Amino acid sequence: MGRAPCCDKANVKKGPWSPEEDAKLKSFIEQHGTGGNWIALPQKIGLKRCGKSCRLRWLNYLRPNIKHGGFSEEEDKVICSLYVSIGSRWSIIAAQLPGRTDNDIKNYWNTRLKKKLLGKQRKEYQAAGRSKGNIMRIKQENYCNSRIMGGQNNQTMSSTFLNNQMVPYWPELPEPVAPFFDRPEPAHFNDHTSVRKLLIKLGGSPSSDGHPCHGCSMNLQCPPDLITYSATTPDMINQRSADMISPSVQIDCQFETTGYGNAEGVAMGIVPQESGWFPPDIEELMCSNVEGSDGGLEFLCSWDDHMMVNNGTQLSWKEMSSPISLDAAPSDYDRLPQGMAAFDGDQLSSDQ
DNA sequence: AACGACTCCAACCGCGTTCTC
DNA sequence: TGAGAACGCGGTTGGAGTCGT
């Protein structure tokens, strides 16, 4: 038995909203709130719209204090940083950018930001005319230096982020174990995942031999086989997963994680190092993030270190106290009871 | 001016999660 | 406790606008 439709599809209007419909919806919600039931709301107002459509329209367009377009550099950085950390969880990212909606950020990322980053990096690579090996070596040194210099604790990261001085500290969110065999084959290039991995890579740098910290003066232990790891059976994967979260490898190998996590939120998963895993243009880009470029990704380098390591100790998700509020996401607006006027007033007055 | 390619974004769709009874 | 309803989210699509030829 399939899922019941949320509304009578035959009797609902679809497509762009008219100014009259907008006015009706806005006026009603401002006066009465949503009543906690989007499905019933269109009937109350006399709109021939699906409740879900009303909700979307309100959240993405009619809600007070919505900003459209004109993303700042700071916002770009926050989006990229959070994308690296948590992936395409647009609602969480949106919660950190006041006035932005998840849909807006998603569109911005897919249509502009991603291309902007890719385009810049390609140009610089072509202009630099450097060999991949040289660039990787430079970047690796850069990464290791930043790692050695790193040492900020949670609190410092929190305050600097809140002052907009630095990209945020954002721990890996816990996810169900996503085994390594989930990674796409080269022939099935997964754009979201791969671009994210790319950003992670640009934020740090593996060495050419596959060890992320080869030559680094810190005593980092990261078995090379974890980097070029491959497993073909669930048993192998489980065993490797257990290995992965042992204390000796957690800290260093986090840098190469895909963002997957185990139940405790300890990130697991390895970005494949084999040449040819990324498509040619992405591989080219991966090698083009040279020191001193203004491609806009350098901030990821220092941030990745801090993101994963706190005073030399791997923290689980539960142990971390994110400075970024997960509450008060824009979508919480519609949960407000009828007495939402106070909230509205505060929001509006602070914005005017 | 006309046309096709491309870009952008509002809106839709489907599915996992949460809530309610 | 389980089923159905509703919510919330991320991926995708359609079409209007823009650009290049």
- Total number of helices: 15
Total count of domains = 2
Give the class from helix and strand content and strand pairing. Answer: mainly alpha
Q: What Rg is obtained from the alpha carbons, in whole angstroms?
A: 23 Å
* Uncertain segments: 129-191, 204-352
GO molecular function: DNA binding
InterPro entries: Homeodomain-like_sf, Myb_dom, SANT/Myb
Keywords: DNA-binding, Nucleus, Repeat, Transcription, Transcription regulation
GO cellular component, one term: nucleus
Give an account of the 3D structure.
- The chain is an all-alpha fold and 352 residues long.
- It has two domains: 18-63, Arc Repressor Mutant, subunit A (Orthogonal Bundle); 77-308, no CATH class.
- It is 48% helix and 1% strand.
- The protein has 15 helices and two strands.
- The chain has helices at residues 19-32, 41-45, 51-62, 73-86, 90-95, 102-128, 132-149, 154-162, 191-203, 224-227, 234-244, 247-253, 280-286, 298-308, 341-351; strands at residues 260-261, 267-268.
- The protein has a two-stranded antiparallel sheet.
- The protein starts with 18 loop residues before the first helix and ends with a helix.
- The chain binds a DNA duplex (21 and 21 nucleotides) through residues 3-4, 6, 14-17, 36-39, 50-53, 55-57, 59-61, 68, 88-91, 102-104, 106-108, 110-112, 192, 331, 334.
- Residues 9-62, 63-117 form the HTH myb-type domain.
- InterPro entries: Homeodomain-like_sf (IPR009057), Myb_dom (IPR017930), SANT/Myb (IPR001005).
